[in-house]
Amino acid sequence: MDLYSAISHLALTDDEKADLCAFFTKNPEQKRDAAAALEVLKDNNVRQIVYHLSLPMIFILFEPTQPRASIKKRKEFKVNGVIYQEERYRYYFVDRTADNQILLDHIIDGNFVRMYAPRASGKSSRCNLRRCAPRQHRYFYKTLGTALGLRSEFCTFEGLRRTFWSETQRDKNVVLFLDDFDMISSKKAEKEVREECLAFIRALKGQPRYIVKSVVSVGTFGILLLNQEDPELSPFNITDSVSGDGFTQDQVVDLFKDFVTDRNLKIDEQVVEDIFRLTRGHPALVCLCGRALDGKFLAEGLYEYKFLDWQAYVINELLGDVKGYSTFRRMVENFNHAHVNPSVKDALNLLRVYFLPNYNLELQVSDKKEICLASFLAKEGVLKVVDENTNTYVISSQLMQSLFIHYVLPNVFSSKPSFELPRFESGRIDWLRALIIATSAFEPDHIRMAAQFSFKTAGGCVNGNNDKHVPRESVYQEQLVRILINWLSSLKFHITSQTCVYKASTQLYVDLVITEPLYKKTEKKYDRTSSKVQIIPASMLITTPNSTLLELIASSTTRDLKEHYAHALDYARCLSPVFKFADIWVVYFNCEDDATTKPNWPTEGQVITGLNCVVFWHNLEFSEVRMTALFKNEDGEVRLVRDTQIIPLPSNLEDITSEPYQFPPCQPIEYDEAYIPLNINIS
Questions:
Q1: Mean pLDDT, consecutive 10-residue segments, the chain of 683 residues?
Q2: Domain residue extents for the chain
Q3: Which of 94, 205, 539, 629 is 20 to 30 A from 213, comparing alpha carbons?
Q4: CA-based nearest residue to 214, from 35, 13, 60
């Protein structure tokens, strides 16, 4: 096989193939090596080459180049793969020249650098420095990918050394980028291969006879963990590490400004703000949201996109689209096999107890075992490294938190109630009893640990003491979502948690929106004119399914509780054009001593409008749970369930009875205009 026919079979663009041929034609020795190497691997008899050549390499030479003229084409959001310089006219692209300055300084100084960032965060695109480099250097690059297969002597490290050695080209400084370098730390890579690879790179360091000026290894956080058992073997200094951060909020705003200007569209500012809040600037997630917006405009012929439209997409589709993206789909699949790998399950336990409930906090890990587990989670992209020297981490994004709460934890921790979903005779769901059953299935050990690691300070007395630590809302959210998904998934319910809506400029949160399945059935109708019975197909009977809104709150002040009552109705009002809410509940978890004996109920106007409230009190061990509730029943009566024990759970839930409730006469009915009219269906 000659060089030209070999290159013609590579998975490269025509321009890359032409550049490659020109590159090797200039150097006959390398041309012969490449042609011979391609012949060697045809026999598939080189074991180590699998690991070495799985690392795509980028050579950057100090030579001038002329940019190719671009062809005008409608831009798109690219979620997968590298955005090469010559492709940037085709995609919405964030210019990160300033972000690359630290990396470029390392390269110019001749350092051997490690650049780490989560998967699908644009590491490879940032390393394509043809555009990002300072103009005065006029870099010229050649890309050699996995498909290239420089074989023959390139198979051995001695041959690779000779490839970079030249007495006549010492002035041609080369920067070698090793992409996906964390692959050599995987279990599939043998220790011998890993050590030999690191030894080779170390041999290049400081040797003037080689034309390699600098080496940049690119990968996940795992590249910082290479050969920790023998640090002297690594060619990379601890201080020469560059973190590949995500987009800043300003960069996300500029990206979508480019989008709306290019398409002559209009998007509510709150949509872009919410995209940054959900993604924390993760490039792939930002572009995935952008691609979804682009698709909505095209499919529905829109020229303006309201925040309500975005909220409907977030609740109904966004998390499924994230899970469908290959990088996150593989992540979910890997963690869902935690039952066969105890260390993975230990990592999930650390995640759910420590990081998921505190997703906005930067947390430091000190225990040796937990440091290893947190490093593993960072390597997988679940956590973001804040400071590798102090072992400080934060959950990578709110979407990552939701991804694990919805698609991983319910599979790994699969407990669920043995009861059927309770319903009234009308078929409507009895959410009070459903919440009692779900709460009784919470994990006591998890709730107990949450009071130590994921806590807030109670405003009242707990066991007769003030300032006690109690679980925060996100702890109950994870427990309730996990239980409901395991319990209701077979019934085709759709459950979304941690949804954001806005009131003026204030950001509010709905913790759970539960949508019932839409049952399609035909209907018979008698036509008086023809005296015949007509069959109406199901497609003509589709209506909006019922949804339930649950607003969670934990051990809060009376003022905060009143705000949640107001917010819950406001949420329903904001979302009512999209969702048909049959029930609205404030679910209040409380550890304070008088939580169920002296509750602070919603106003009469709020209850009549459709707001229900249930209070669950539990001790810190979660061995005893009591509840009280105020709600409007199917007949429109306001009913009260007085202080009742639910753990241990009564043998018959029908024993939990309610009585009519009379609001205090001194409390007038006030219908705040913020609540009226509410376009919600309260049966």
A1: 60 59 54 46 36 38 41 74 75 79 81 78 62 39 35 47 54 74 69 73 68 79 67 66 84 93 89 93 91 82 85 90 89 86 91 89 91 90 87 91 94 91 91 96 92 85 89 92 94 82 48 81 53 52 79 90 90 88 95 93 93 96 95 92 90 85 70 41 34
A2: 3-243, 249-324, 328-412, 431-513+542-660
A3: 94
A4: 60
